[in-house]
């Protein structure tokens, strides 16, 4: 597979960055500017070492700026004696605190085309920045992840001069030998399992580590920047939103670094998970295992169902929306698109109002927090993972959305077109994967069909609405009055399915048991037969031994009578005398 290009941007399929070939380190001419953003909190000693290491980088100094964001909490931070020429310190903007807040402050101040996050307790190797930036010269929608190892510094830190000399001379491993460091185990296992993220089309964002990563400023702005309400887990959450903007994640093993100190997750893993998981469950719908409650609404929906209600009958709109809201997939939202600004408060005839259907639709759902009203839905539903465009008058079954999205994930389809009615005018629903649509919109030429690019980068396919349980409003029954009842029905159906499967497994086990018993019987027969053969063999050996002893006796007797037999032989062979003739 090769990556096509349009306007200099290669087209990567899913997350397979393999067809991209970056320039060799030291054998190319960089042109893009980079802003290295270093969030810092009460860490002057390690910050001095990080800046000293950045001063020894191979990436051109005139293309690099370093922004240290002082997050407060102690004496004001200062720039050490050894630091890149274009280094400045900015305070975190008022109103917040924490790494995400500081990173966003630095991103807002950044002037580079690429933003490179780097923590203030990191010692990057000489080619660290260059190794990451060479990818950003290939495509503008890549997120590049550096490689780090944790080192125990309880025995003390080297000086800034020692760090600078080691980095500039390519001797960091002498300062921090590999045998004294530990890898980022979970990340390394993830990369090994997914062929360095090439075989990881949906959840590569999970290894987005803010300690060392880089992203184009354009892509960062499109994703909305950092979620400054988070004080932990912000890098995973940002990685998810970057993925919904079509990002491709690339691990760069040559962007090596040493983390000064042990990994927080490694030493307090259970506490970190307890803190992060509830917050990530609200913001990252791809983490399905964190969203197990059957009815809860989440901050970021998994699916946004967009229904164009302009000109539609109120009864059709209600049937569609009620069917969606009764879905056994709870983390969804509904967006109703229509000319809502036309609904004024001026005097009108209530029953002869030409906008009565529109007014009834708004009155029915305006107090439901799952339903939003807009006149322009935009090109995608980010940060939701999916958008379903569903025409008014068509009703999904209780499990339709759950099953349809699960099926789309089997091959990571970018768009699934669902034929609802093929008689006369073609009527379709359309399931769109947000990441696929946003990437295609970035890559598509001005006169190029968006679906062609989606097909090239993610894949598209067609399916039947009947197969997934879509029905016209006239044929659909009223949804259950209780979402819990619908969920209970689904669970009962699942239980019956697994019960039947268990019965089949039990039958298989019985068959295998009978087969094993048969084989056991055969084994017993073979054992008896073998015993008989062994007994026969013993008897034959005895008889053979007797024959050998008899042969020995005969040979001995022949030897004893040999002189006599030789005399007889000579006598018989001697010529007879003439008297005998």
From TrEMBL:
Residues 481-508 form a coiled coil. InterPro entries: Glyco_trans_2-like (IPR001173), Nucleotide-diphossugar_trans (IPR029044). It comes from the Bacteria. GO terms for cellular component: plasma membrane. Keywords: Cell membrane, Coiled coil, Glycosyltransferase, Membrane, Transferase. Transmembrane segments: none annotated. One of its GO terms (molecular function) is glycosyltransferase activity. Residues 35-154 form the Glycosyltransferase 2-like domain. It is found in: Cell membrane. Pathway: Carotenoid biosynthesis; staphyloxanthin biosynthesis; staphyloxanthin from farnesyl diphosphate: step 4/5. Its main location: membrane. Pfam families: Glycos_transf_2. Belongs to the glycosyltransferase 2 family. CrtQ subfamily. Catalyzes the glycosylation of 4,4'-diaponeurosporenoate, i.e. the esterification of glucose at the C1'' position with the carboxyl group of 4,4'-diaponeurosporenic acid, to form glycosyl-4,4'-diaponeurosporenoate. This is a step in the biosynthesis of staphyloxanthin, an orange pigment present in most staphylococci strains. This is 4,4'-diaponeurosporenoate glycosyltransferase. It comes from Planomonospora sphaerica.
């Amino acid at each position: 597979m090769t990556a096509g290009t349009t306007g200099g941007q290669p087209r990567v399929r899913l997350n397979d960055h393999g067809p991209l070939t970056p320039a060799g380190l030291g054998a190319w001419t960089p042109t893009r500017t980079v802003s290295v953003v270093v969030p810092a909190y009460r860490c002057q000693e390690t910050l001095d070492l990080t800046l000293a290491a950045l001063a020894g980088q191979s990436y051109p100094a005139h293309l690099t700026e370093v922004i240290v964001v002082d997050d407060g909490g102690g004496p004001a931070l200062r720039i050490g004696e050894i630091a890149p020429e274009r280094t400045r310190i900015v305070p975190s903007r008022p109103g917040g605190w924490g790494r995400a807040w500081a990173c966003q402050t630095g991103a807002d101040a950044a002037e580079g085309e690429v933003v490179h996050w780097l923590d203030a307790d990191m010692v990057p190797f000489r080619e660290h920045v260059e190794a990451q930036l060479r990818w950003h010269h290939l495509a503008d929608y890549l997120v590049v992840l550096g490689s780090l190892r944790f080192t125990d510094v309880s025995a003390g830190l080297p000086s800034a001069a020692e760090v600078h000399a080691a980095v500039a001379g390519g001797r960091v491993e002498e300062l921090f030998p590999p045998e004294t460091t530990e890898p980022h185990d979970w990340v390394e296992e993830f990369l090994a399992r997914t062929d360095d993220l090439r075989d990881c089309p949906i959840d590569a964002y999970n290894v987005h580590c803010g300690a060392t990563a880089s992203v184009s400023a354009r892509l960062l702005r499109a994703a909305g920047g950092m979620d400054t309400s988070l004080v932990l887990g912000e890098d995973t959450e940002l990685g998810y939103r970057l993925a919904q903007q079509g990002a491709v994640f690339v691990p760069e093993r040559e962007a090596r670094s040493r983390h000064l100190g042990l990994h927080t997750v490694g030493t307090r893993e259970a506490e970190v998970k307890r803190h992060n998981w509830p917050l990530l469950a609200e913001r990252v719908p791809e983490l399905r295992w964190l969203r197990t409650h059957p009815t809860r609404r989440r901050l970021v929906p998994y699916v946004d169902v967009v229904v164009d209600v302009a000109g539609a009958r109120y009864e059709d709109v209600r049937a569609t929306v009620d069917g969606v809201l009764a879905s056994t997939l709870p983390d969804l939202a509904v967006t109703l698109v229509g000319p809502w600004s036309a609904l004024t408060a001026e005097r009108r005839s209530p029953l002869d109002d030409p906008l009565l259907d529109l007014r009834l639709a708004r009155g029915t759902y305006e107090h439901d927090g799952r339903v939003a009203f807009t006149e322009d839905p935009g090109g995608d539903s980010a940060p939701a993972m999916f958008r379903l465009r569903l025409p008014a008058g068509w009703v999904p079954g209780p499990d339709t959305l759950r099953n349809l999205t699960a099926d789309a994930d089997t091959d990571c389809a970018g768009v699934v077109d669902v034929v609802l009615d093929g008689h006369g005018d073609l009527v379709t629903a359309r399931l769109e994967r947000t990441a696929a649509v946003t990437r295609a919109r970035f890559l598509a030429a001005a006169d190029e069909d968006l679906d062609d690019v989606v097909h090239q980068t993610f894949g598209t396919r067609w399916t039947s609405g009947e197969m997934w349980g879509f029905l016209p409003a006239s044929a659909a029954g009223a949804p259950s009055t209780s979402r819990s009842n619908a969920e209970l029905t689904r669970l009962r159906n699942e239980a019956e399915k697994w019960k039947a499967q268990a019965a089949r497994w039990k039958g298989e086990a019985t068959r295998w048991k009978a087969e094993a018993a048969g084989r056991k019987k055969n084994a017993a027969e073979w054992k008896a037969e073998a015993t008989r053969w062994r007994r026969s063999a013993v008897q034959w050996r005895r008889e053979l031994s007797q024959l050998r002893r008899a042969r020995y006796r005969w040979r001995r007797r022949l030897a004893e009578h040999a002189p006599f037999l030789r005399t007889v032989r000579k006598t018989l062979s001697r010529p007879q005398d003439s008297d005998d003739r």
